[in-house]
Amino acid sequence: MKDKKQNSGFNTPKNYFGDFEDRLFHKLNEDTIPKESSFTTPKEYFNQLDSSILQNSDSTVYPTKVIQLFSKRTLAYAITIAACATLIVSISNRNKTLNTIDNIEITSIESYIEEGNLEMDSYDIGSLLNDEDLTNTISEKEYITKDVIEDYLFDQIEDTSILIE
Amino acid sequence: MVKEKQLISALQSIEQKESAFRKLVSLYKERLYWHIRKIVIDHDDTDDVLQNTFIKVFKNIDRFKGDSKLFTWMYRIATNEAITFINKKVKQNNITFEDVKIQLISRLESDVYFEGDEIQLQLQKAIATLPQKQQLVFNMKYFENHTYENLSEILDTSVGGLKSNYHLAVKKITAFLKTNETF
User: Fold this and answer.
1) Is there a contact between B113 and A17 if contact means CB atoms under 8 Å apart?
2) Assuming Cys at both sites, which of A68, B6, B45, B113 could form a disulfide with B40, CB separation 3.0 to 4.6 Å?
3) What is the pLDDT along chain B (183 residues), one digit of tens a residue?
4) In chain B, positions 136-175, which contact chain A (CB-CB < 8 Å)?
């Protein structure tokens, strides 16, 4: 039976008939997989489902009390508390003045040091000063001379024999 | 005939079923493809329908009694599958069988798997205007060279009825081509 399909103008993709069997058997194998999942439901489940859903969703049968998250009274309290807190903070901030080293009295600093609160030795102080500060503060000309030291010692020490030695 | 009987008994035996089925597919896939293609037009749709046809054959071969030729039986399944496929489109789009065919034919010009010239395109358009039965008869007689006896078995229609269908189809197609002559 020779047909005239070649004259109809229709064509197929390349090698369509070559791999047709493979695709067909793949589909046949798929068809052998059971369509049913084997899950079942209790008897009359779906017949009763509608009424069960409607019963549970009917709000007129079981009215539910709705508690508003923000009642008017609670809201008023919250606003009052927030206003008071803001007022207190702003007043306390207004009274505060900024403490700087300039507006602390010298006597206060001295008494602070005398009370032994400043635990610093000469090395600690030295570490706070740079070379320039040191040369500006202590110049060679300001060194205490030998004579002055001797005079000071003679005046202050009772047993001067140690000095003669 | 002896060969067909052997093939049928192989298809109906558990041990040989798969290998016999492969042989059957190899023998008839092309002829059934072209038969389906003339009805559903699109290649991918044809592929789906052809696969479904063979799956039905595989699943129902045990019930084949041999009252008709195996080839005729398969053709009948293929025709039913293809018409069912088109009828689904008819239902989905709520239009007639002929309208679906006209829609499908209108896409042929951009179809990569249609290489027909202007005359062949016009012929497909003319076929699409025919009633379903006349389309079937014309395609199977004109393109596939079936005898009226064969067609009678496949389409379950008398030879006289088929002849009448075919002549009517040819007349309408000729008229269509004359009216829409662009070549």
Assistant:
1) no
2) B45
3) 668 888 898 999 888 988 999 999 999 999 999 999 999 999 999 999 999 999 999 999 999 988 888 999 999 999 999 999 999 989 998 888 888 888 888 888 888 898 888 888 999 999 999 999 999 999 999 998 899 999 999 999 999 999 999 999 999 999 999 988 765
4) 142-146
* Rounded distance between C-alpha atoms, residue B139 and residue B39, angstroms: 8
| Tokens representing residue A90 in the block | 């702003």
- Strand residue runs (E) in A37-165: none
Q: Tally Cβ neighbours within 10 Å of residue A41.
A: 8
Structure tokens at B102: 């006209």
Q: How far is A16 from chain B (nearest CA, A)?
A: 9
What is the spatial distance between Cα A17 and Cα B67, in angstroms, rounded to a whole number? 30
CA torsion through residues A129, A135, A139, A143, sign: positive
In whole angstroms, what is the distance from residue B109 CA to residue B120 CA? 11
Q: Give the closest of A2, A8, A20 to B38, CB-based.
A: A8
Contact of B50 with B32, CB cutoff 8 Å: yes
Closest-CA distance, A40 to chain B, in angstroms, reads: 27
Cα separation of B131 and B165, whole Å? 10
Q: Look at residues A123, A122, A11 and name the one whose alpha carbon lies nearest to residue B117.
A: A11
Pick left, alpha or beta for residue B143 (phi over 0 → left; psi -120 to 50 → alpha; otherwise beta): alpha
**CB-CB under 8 Å, A21 with B26:** yes
CA B65 to chain centroid: 23
A9-68 residues touching B, CB cutoff 8 A: 9-13, 16-17, 20-21, 23-25, 27-28, 31
Interface test with B, best of A24, A25, A28, A32 (most B CBs within 10 A): A24
DSSP B57-73: HHHHGGG--SSS-HHHH
> What are the backbone angles phi and psi of residue A40, rounded to the nearest 5°?
-125, 170
For the entire predicted model, the pTM comes to 0.61
